Amino acid sequence: MAKRPKKSTSRSSADGTLAVLPALSHLSHVPRFDELHASNRQRAAFDRVQERSGGDVELACVVRLDRGFPALVTADALFRAEFAAKLTKGDNSRVAVGDWVAARRPAEHDMGLIEEILPRESDIARWRGKSRGEKQTLAANVDVVIVVQALLPGEFDPERIVRSAVIARDCGADVAVVLTKADRVDDAHRDSAVAQIRELVGDNAAIAVTSSEEGRGIDDVRALVPAGTIAIVLGESGAGKSTLLNALLGQEALETGEVRERDDAGRHTTVCRRMVSLHDAGIIVDEPGLRSLPLVGHERGLAKVFPDIAEAASTCKFRDCTHTHEPGCAVLGGPFSPARVRAYVALASEMRANAAGLDPDIVL
Ligand SMILES: Nc1nc2c(ncn2[C@@H]2O[C@H](COP(=O)(O)OP(=O)(O)OP(=O)(O)O)[C@@H](O)[C@H]2O)c(=O)[nH]1
Ligand SMILES: [Mg+2]
Q1: Are residues 91 and 202 in the same domain?
Q2: What is the pTM of this model?
Q3: Where would you tag: which of 46, 238, 316, 353 has the fewest CB atoms within 10 A of its CB?
Q4: What are the pocket residues of ligand 1 if the criterion is a CB atom closer than 6 Å to any ligand atom?
Q5: Which atom from ligand 1 is nearest to the alpha carbon of 237?
Q6: Which atom number of ligand 1 is nearest to the Cα of residue 182?
Q7: Nearest to 207 by CA among 147, 248, 258, 154
Q8: pLDDT along the chain (364 residues), means of 10
């Protein structure tokens, strides 16, 4: 059972910030340490830090980030932490929800200290901004990316689902697609949406249809996150991610809201990244919606989502074939559905353009 942090009269440099963060004692569904599993590699890395530090560090997992401030779970405590001086030289945001760290809890401080971030097994990242943006890690050590999108006309966007699947597969995660708000569309629209996604992603992703309003499909989503696995929900603001998690938890644990400004810099209902434990199943990371998901260097992900087309592409007559008009093109000449070819070509050409934009001296 996680202990609450000790009340302390000492002042820490972050006291002012601490005051505006939610009190950890009020949070529900925080994963327990025994629900989280560091890999052997991460444990070995931790042992090395412990040896170096004389044994006063603990193995901890980052379970929340509020305004960039991590909250850690250890075998017997839940507490906020700041970065040891040697880590603050770089960029604090390098730590992500799901990261394993070696942390200390100096007796005289409210806050723990992160001494070292242990190596990641995987990391779900996206590029912020266009091709010259920076890479942002959404979560570390995640097994499944749940792409969440509303079925509503105007919001249902198969291209974006494929794009999300490419990013997830590129990061080494499994993909599942959850189409929400089924209560707002008719059965014919729903069936056609599912068929379109199935055609595009093939066997790459499980597809679930939900209505959090009517409690439909919720157990299908639970089945996507069995005990011992960690998933992250990925989708635009207003897609219904937090509402879906509340339905899974059976209570209104997370804030949800009307669709507001839909912009990466805009106001989102969910403003922190956090893990919630389903307790009877795995763990899901909730996070603010993401508008833009540029593809930069995700060729491997594209090849995993479209393995047959990627294989054909390697046999085109021209090595720099764009699969749009060239003679001897094995993609256009192949036995592939036009919708899949269109999706593949659009994403491949975006990646090519972004790669070119990255550094004008590099020719791909
Ligand atoms: N009718 C209907 N409305 C839903 C459903 N799921 C979510 N909503 C509504 O959609 C709106 C947005 O839901 P949220 O869960 O806050 O969306 P979110 O994806 O978490 O958004 P951000 O936190 O901003 O990224 C809320 O008004 C929800 O009540 C559903 O299955 N049916
Ligand atoms: Mg939300």
Answers
A1: no
A2: 0.89
A3: 353
A4: 180-181, 183-184, 210-213, 235, 237-243, 256-259, 268-270, 288-289
A5: 25
A6: 31
A7: 147
A8: 40 54 84 96 97 92 91 95 76 81 89 94 81 78 97 95 96 96 97 97 94 96 97 95 95 75 54 91 94 87 96 93 94 95 95 71 44
